Amino acid sequence: MSIITISRGSYSQGSTVATKLAPLLGYECISREILLEASKDFNIPEVKLVQAISDAPSILDRFTYGKEKYIAYIQAAILKYVLRDNVVYHGMAGHFFMKGVSHVLKVRILSDLEDRVQRLMAQEGVPKKEALRILKQTDEERRKWSMHLYGIDTWDPSLYDLVVHVGKITVDDAVDMIAHAVRFPQFQTTPESRKALANLALAAEVKADLVNWKPDVEVTAEEGIVHIFLVAPESQQSALLRDLEKIARGVAGVKDVKFQVRAQAVSVD
Fold it and tell me: Strands of 225-232's sheet, edge to edge?
């Protein structure tokens, strides 16, 4: 029992690899379904969630935390879904959200830019110059996204357990390689790895419920004990903590709530 995350650039055939791999293993294959579920659970238009994981962060986002809110919703939906195990998730952010979970096999699919351009031209009917522009812009926006939110580069091979360059290695070859790798003992679910994933999922669900009150809040969890980290003016802390604790305790699985608060400096004109 394992989870496979497949990260890929646009038109790199990562989606094809995922959709062939899942039935071979008897796993569920998910991608856009996560956005639909998050959209429904948090009453957010799906288009905003799509933009949150595809558009580069704007100056406005840095001040309003708009993008971070939507990412919190997506993270909660992904982690809730993969608690089932035996899942292939392909798309943005999967490997970001499951750090420290040993039964996750993190895969990156690469493809030559020229091959990607040809696939985009064939599928969308755009000229070569436009296809090249679209791919370069998309790659750059996704890089900026990961750097802005996590300080890491999605193209960094050290983030992945397996990097496969589809070209001389075919899609079917890639599927076979991943299917072989995921059967290694180190990628099998253990009580410890299941607990680690459950902690991440609970923290993500609590954070998703809190972000409208405190967008920059950080949350961790350990066996039902939720730790909430935030910065707030001393004059607002009492009321804010009371509200946040009430919301957090309303999440199924939360046994206790603990706060770590740092006083926010108040500027004086």
Answer: 218-222, 225-232, 256-263
To 10 degrees, what angle do helices 171-181 and 14-25 make? Answer: 50
pLDDT in tens, the chain (269 residues): 799 999 988 899 999 999 999 999 999 998 877 777 777 777 777 676 666 666 555 543 554 556 777 788 888 888 988 998 999 999 777 788 898 899 999 999 999 999 999 999 999 999 999 999 999 988 888 888 778 767 778 888 899 999 999 999 999 999 999 999 999 999 999 999 999 999 999 999 999 999 888 888 999 999 999 999 999 888 888 999 999 999 999 999 999 999 999 887 655 44
The CATH T-level fold of domain 213-263 is Alpha-Beta Plaits (3.30.70)
DSSP tag of 169:
B
At the second CATH level, the architecture of 3-187 is: 3-Layer(aba) Sandwich (3.40)
Tokens at 131, concatenated: 């296809």
